Input
Amino acid sequence: MSEVAVLFSILGAFLLGAMSPGPSFIVVSRIAVAGTRTDAMLAALGMGVGGFVFALIAVAGLTALLMQVEWLNLTIRLAGGAYLFWLGVRIWRGASDPVDTPDAGAPRRNAGFRSFTRSLFVQLSNPKTAIFYASMFAALLPTPTPAWMLHALPPVLFLIEFGWYTVVGLAFSSRGPRAAYVHSKRWIDRAAGAVVGALGLKLMADSVRAAS
Output
């Protein structure tokens, strides 16, 4: 298989990985439906930056090293799970708050910055994403890996993450999804909070189980 074909196979695998449902999808769609198109794009940017960071770590071989240092791996997984659980609780507790959409006319100071940082932290808080990056690189990269491919992967994977979540953000920030959110905010937020919190608990439980 040619080097270009290998690169495209890697990109296809990562696109499918980005499209799989998870906390990132839930958070970006919720930010988009409750905010502006700018919020949605900044949330997508946060996901892209998170993917870029994971790609750099994987290219540097630090993920493989992390998986060999058991206590550090466990600490990071527990911290990531705890953050997702905390975020899920916050979403659940805010389910009954007034609707804070652009159409509601509520003040939205620093909303764009919060959209970016929240999506970035959600992306970085999931160690399974880092493991997925390292596993795909180990399984699909040729040996030896050309230097141009190692340099190309982080920015291209940024574009994949950013591109996919831009599609998600634009879709959910349109008039129809926003109207549905305004009408059913309490139940949508409670469902989103429950799913994100449950994923955080599962990550922590799986980490403890693997370490025991």
Remarks:
- The mean pLDDT is 81.
- The CA atoms of residues 81 and 201 lie 6 Å apart.
